[in-house]
Amino acid sequence: MADVNFERLFDALSSPHMVIDREWRFVAANAAYERVTMRRREELMGRGLFELFPNEGEGGRRLKASFSRVFETGETDTVAFIPYDIPRPEAQGGGMEKRYWTATHIPIRDAGGAVAFLMQNTVDVTDIVRLREAANLPFRSGETQLLERAREAEEQHRALMAESADFRRLFQQAPGFFAVLSGPDHVFTFANDAYARLVGERALVGKPVREALPEIEGQGFLEMLDAVYASGEPAGGEAMRVMLRRTPGQPLQESFLDFSYDAIRDAHGRITGVFVQGMDRTETVRTQRRQRLLLDELNHRVKNTLASVQSIASQTLRSAPDLATARRSFEARIMALSNAHNLLSREEWSSAELRTLLDNGLAAYDESRLELDGPAVMLTPKASIAVALVVHELATNAAKYGALSNDTGTVGLRWRVAAAGEGLSVEWRERGGPPVSPPTRRGFGSRIIEGFVAGELGGTCDVDYAPEGFSCRLALPGDAVLGVWR
């Protein structure tokens, strides 16, 4: 079979043909187009169509709308009986020559499947109109039927395009993400707003997936697309993790998607592309993760709390002289534990402020006999509970035997943090109470203080039974402190 010279074939076509790019600039025109426009090819190439043939009227509006439809949809478009005046060259007297056309616009795709050019084939129907005007008669039946059919075809085409545009808007604005990929390289021919937001508003249409989204290489999605295109079998996943770069030059961000890939087939059943649809589940997955973490943390804290209650009950019953005393001591200690829990709950169990813990624990006592001094310190939940119980035991002991058991004694409570990340020092000092002497036996208060400070927090507790007043120095490790505001 002889080789065909398509450039010569294009130039030999009897009807006017031309090709424009996406900027509506001439890139090709045949001899017939030169004749009807009265322009040589070298005058046309690289120039804008509406620069050479301006038209702000109905004809220009209809022609521009048709061009836009072809480049946006990739579908052939026809405009019938369009008035479009052609400017005469100065050599032919200048001015405008009134003409009427029927034009068909055909998309031309590049190697990647994107619409890169538009070819126009026109039929000049000016002579028919002029004959009618010259004779001042209506169209002959054949001519009338021809133009009426052209008008009807265009109206039907416009109606279909309007309906198609409505569907396109629905897909474009849908909350779920959608994309249409064409060919074995999965070239984007459509992506809705949700898809664009998902991938960071980057340019997609006309690019293969591997070029448009290079960061998903190796994450399994490209292999799934290849399999769907090859087999026609759908694929997808629920809450699947994907790493995307939403901002150029920035680190990848984690997302979780529900999605499906479905093969697109033509009228003959051949696979031509893949339809992508799905929902961004990132916030839902993160919320579920947080809930699981909170539940695990809650279970851990409930176990610790029950262990604390069990220890308090056991030690209280063992140390109390009678059941009534045991009941009162147990209830007071449980209330101290409950107050600490309430304070932590208000902060979603993230931390508690030391001064607030102390104010709550000493609320039952005359504040004029209490001297509190120290910076604003945030404690961890474990340290908060330990400090609350220790302060309760110290205050209870002072009320029974120490500085708060008479009308004149005072308690000084001072705390310091040397530097960020270092431990917390808390000093309890009583003055003005009855004379002090060391206890003859080790009571529950001493055991609970040492148990929580040393056992729970890994700190130390030093007590001093000086005659002028009892004092206690607590040293808590650095990991008990979350922050300090001096």
Give an account of the 3D structure:
42% of the residues lie in helices and 27% in strands. It is an alpha+beta fold and 486 residues long. The chain has three domains: 159 residues, 2-Layer Sandwich (Beta-Lactamase); 104 residues, 2-Layer Sandwich (Beta-Lactamase); 170 residues, 2-Layer Sandwich (Heat Shock Protein 90). The strands form five sheets. Strands 2-1-7-6-3 form a five-stranded antiparallel sheet. A five-stranded antiparallel sheet has the order 9-8-12-11-10, with helices on both faces. The longest helix has 38 residues. About 2% of the residues have low confidence.
CATH-level-4 superfamily name of the largest domain = Histidine kinase-like ATPase, C-terminal domain
Strand ordering within the main sheet: 2-1-7-6-3
Number of helices: 15
Low-confidence stretches: 136-144
Termini separation:
93 Å
Structurally, the number of domains stands at 3
Question: How many β-strand stretches?
Answer: 20
Keywords for this entry:
Heat Shock Protein 90; 15 helices; 20 strands; alpha+beta; rod-shaped; Beta-Lactamase; five-stranded antiparallel beta sheet; 486 residues
Short structural summary:
This protein has helices at residues 6-12, 31-37, 41-44, 49-52, 58-73, 126-135, 141-173, 193-198, 209-212, 221-231, 282-319, 323-346, 354-361, 381-400, 444-456, and strands spanning 17-21, 26-29, 77-83, 86-87, 96-97, 100-109, 115-124, 177-182, 187-191, 235-244, 253-265, 271-280, 352-353, 370-373, 376-379, 410-417, 424-431, 460-466, 469-476, 481-485.
